[in-house]
Each structure stands twice: as C-alpha cells, then as structure tokens.
Amino acid sequence: MNSDSAARWQRRRRLERFSRNERIFPGGDHPTGNCGACARIIAGRFGGEVRGYWHEDNPTARVGETEGGHDFAITEDRFLVDPWLFHYYGDSPVLDLTIAADTAEATARYGPEENWKLGPGMVQYLCHQIFAESGKT
C-alpha cells in the first residue's frame, strides 16, 4: 500500500468512526433524525457539500423511496458519507467514489450522480414545487 492509499484508507476509517458515533448522531427527536442534518454535520466537520434528491426525480434510487427523498454528504476528496443511512438502516455509512465497486454501490443506493442536487438548491426546489402546486409560480 503506497502512502496515498494508506492516507485514504485512514481518512475512510475516521469518517466511518465519526459516522457511527451515537453521541453525535442520536437520531429520534434530535435533529439528526433527519438525513439533511446528518449530512450538514459531516460537510461542516470534514469539508464538502450536501447533496440530495427528491425520489420522484430520482426513481432508481433505493434510498429515500419511503421518505420521499434523501440527503447525504460528499467530501472534497470524494467520499460519500451518510450517517443517517447507517443509524436507520444499518448500511455502511462511507463509500469511496474513487473506487469502482463503491461507485456502483452509490449508484444502486442513490441513483445516478447527475440526479444528486446541491443542498441549498433543494430548499429552492421545494419552494418552487410548493408554489407550482398552488398555481402561484
């Protein structure tokens, strides 16, 4: 294992440990019962951005079908981190998007990457949808 691979493996382990921490992500009535809040904690702590989708716009995604959509974090070094998924469904919370097998798993879970919208845009999108449904666009 070269030094870059070793550093990447250590980064993944750190993200895994953090994501599995029930003191940080207690869920339930705590704000971390929401996938978006979990994603914002990861992006704030480790850098990166919140991505997400509404399931109706991303129907091939397995995650978020019941909830109507889903948010997760993508770090600047291309780790997809989803502590909410781990705490509610038991799936591994970290995928390395530079590894083909992890990218395939991410696509199976979250649909195609082109459907993953940047977090703040989700709020604008929701407002647009509400106004569109009310006929006030």
General description of the model:
The protein has 137 residues and is of the alpha+beta class. Helix content is 47%, strand content 15%. Strands 4-3-2-1-5 form a 5-stranded antiparallel beta sheet, sandwiched between helices. Helix 1 (3-20) packs across helix 3 (83-89). It is globular, with a radius of gyration of 15 Å. The termini are far apart. 31% of the residues are buried.
Task: Summarize the structure in short.
The protein is an alpha+beta fold. The chain is 47% helix and 15% strand.
How does the SSE layout of this entry go?
Layout: H1 3-20, H2 35-46, E1 49-54, E2 69-74, E3 79-81, H3 83-89, E4 94-96, H4 100-110, E5 117-118, H5 119-134
Antiparallel strand pairs: 1-2, 1-5, 2-3, 3-4
Keywords:
single chain; about 140 residues; alpha+beta; five-stranded antiparallel beta sheet
Low-confidence stretches: 123-129
Gyration radius (Cα, Å) is: 15 Å
* Percent of sequence in beta strands: 5-15%
Order of helices and strands: HHEEEHEHEH
Shape: globular
**Helical proportion, percent range:** 40-55%
**Sheet having the most strands:** 5 strands, antiparallel
- Our measurement of the CA-to-CA distance between the termini, rounded to an integer number of angstroms, reads 55 Å
Strand element count: 5
In spatial order, strands of the major sheet run: 4-3-2-1-5
